[in-house]
């Protein structure tokens, strides 16, 4: 039987001894985007501390979700090409592309509970590795359970429209920084947007952390 690898343990082993040189980032995402799925696993491994922030694709008018039917095939082709390059499975949810507002509100709640990463990983795996609809209540509760979240809290959060305002505000911050797509990574030296910039963001954050630790 193979050894189970816990990402938390791996991160703890590599974490710098001093707080000042921890490698940190804010990850802004939309669960309806396949590129969030393609980026999330690498983000989880690349940084010591991640703030998981759901953001609004509509406000950002981003290129990672189709604006009309003509954009759909272009995004599908690009996502499938990237998934193949990363050797990740990719299955399209039946109702994609559609927004998943309930799941996004639960992601906001999960981040407040310190379980943002666990929920994003569980949710995007179900959506884009399993092909399930995240706004289906059964699927949403499965993702919440996998993330160790209380079911009653998640069901309440899924109905709380006030959480949408926080996501819109996150997107406005990105717009102000010049970003045009999700996911995006905000590190001390700037913002990197697009799934293919995860490596660049991590390298920049590590350089800044090393300089801060001197």
Automatic annotation (TrEMBL):
GO terms for molecular function: isomerase activity; oxidoreductase activity. It comes from the Bacteria. It holds the Pfam family DSBA. InterPro entries: DSBA-like_thioredoxin_dom, Thioredoxin-like_sf. Residues 26-198 form the DSBA-like thioredoxin domain. Keywords: Isomerase. This is 2-hydroxychromene-2-carboxylate isomerase.
